Structures are given as C-alpha cells and as structure tokens.
C-alpha cells in the first residue's frame, strides 16, 4: 500500500484547500470591518463621555458658586406635592 495520490485526488485536495482559504479570507475581511466599526463607535462614545464629564463639572462648579453666594432664587424652590 502506498500513500501516493492520483493527480485527480491531488487536484481535488488542492481545490478544497483553496476553497477553505477563500472562506477564511472572507471572514477575516468581515471581522476586520467589524473591528474598525467598533473602534469608530468607541471613539464617539469616549468623546461623548468626555463632554458629559465636562458639563457635569461645570454644573457642579455653578452649584458650588451658587451655594457660596447664599442667594435664594424662587425657581430653585421645589413646590409641594399633594
């Protein structure tokens, strides 16, 4: 018994390997696109988070400045609930 393959069998194995390689390349391209899209979304979320932190900091500073002045504004008064 020999392990030699016929030309038809070699051709079939080569075709099978080429097919699997093309399939893997397709999935690598798909995964690459998904990673790039997630990177863009992450950058946007980081920008939004930084903006929200800055606004929160500004509001906190404004609140502290208002408290230190001791001024009362009618719009700050919470109406009673029935």
UniProtKB/TrEMBL annotation:
Q: What domain of life is recorded for the organism? A: Bacteria
Give me the stretches of Basic and acidic residues compositional bias: 73-82
The segments labelled Disordered in the record are: 58-82
The protein, known as: Protein SlyX
* Provenance organism: Vreelandella lutescens
Organism placement in taxonomy: Bacteria, Pseudomonadati, Pseudomonadota, Gammaproteobacteria, Oceanospirillales
Chain's gene name: slyX
